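Record 1 of the preview.
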Amino acid sequence: MTSNPVEVGTAFDRKMMRRCIELAQKAAGRTAPNPMVGAVVVKDGEIIGEGFHPGAGKPHAEVFALREAGDAAKGATIYVSLEPCNHYGRTPPCSLAVVKAGLAKVVVGMVDPDPRVSGGGIKTIQDAGIETLVGVEEVACQQLNEGFIHRILQKQPLGILKYAMTLDGKIATTTGHSAWITHQETRNRVYELRSVCDAVIVGGNTVRLDNPHLTTHDTTDHNPLRVIVSQTLDFPKDRHLWDVAIAPTVVITKPEINPEMQSFLKEQGVEIAHLDLVSPKTVMQYLYERGCLQVLWECGGTLSAQAIAEGTVQKVMAFIAPKIIGGKSAPTPVGDLGLTLMDEALVLEQMQLQQLGEDFLLEGRLVQEKSD
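->
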């Protein structure tokens, strides 16, 4: 992410770009592997066309906005949160559609990090003699598509580690009981978070102890892919995750593990994915190949520590309840990282604190180690 302290464009330009972002967010969690994009066509200070990209294989935002504007688009200005694409994929290049519409000006929120596009769409538009303005509300546009940007640049989905804990840092009691640490308002926020992610990952212990649903609980009609990482497949047969009528479930394991349970899961409609090496890194590579942009780690301390250690977590979202449970053996959000000195501690940046009823959400990005 880059910061842009200088405001680009007029107040009206920024207002229209914020509208593009608002439109784009209507498809949150549904566009993978594509970015979220919104577009607005303006003429004489009035909006004459709007649109957003609803999902891969469907028309892009600019197409919907220009279609709504019709012939009035000639001589108008189009605002778009991401540089118009310049290559033939599942749909034709939007840069050519923009040129063909006879627009007078194109205002872009951010340059597309995809090397197939990056700068090319803008150049095509400029070469056609159309005025361009780039970088309006750039930081907000980058935040909108942080999962897409990370996927393009790092070749893996953006990993978000989410957990709920007590004020003294416990995610369950000494007996493993964890329902409920936080209050309903916080749980609603978690459902909202799941709705904008492409997949949610848990380990075997979470399945056995918590029997989670990992859905949005009807707060939206979009549920993420539910992913279970297991080295044993030692599961009860009455788990909520085996009900794939609500949301799909995939179990990632080694080919030879527990054939009987694998057969049972397949009969339930659960997908089985075989990896020779099952680790956070290989799981994220698998989800990258499935097209995921943003993945939520909702696992226990052992798997979360592995996920952090293997570089598959970029953001941390800690939901903190004003409760104290104590217990020397009560589990904590992150297991052993092998760190013995305080100056080895992993550091978070870009911190945000939000109150959710009686609870708090502390959110930040893990500082990435810089290579020499």
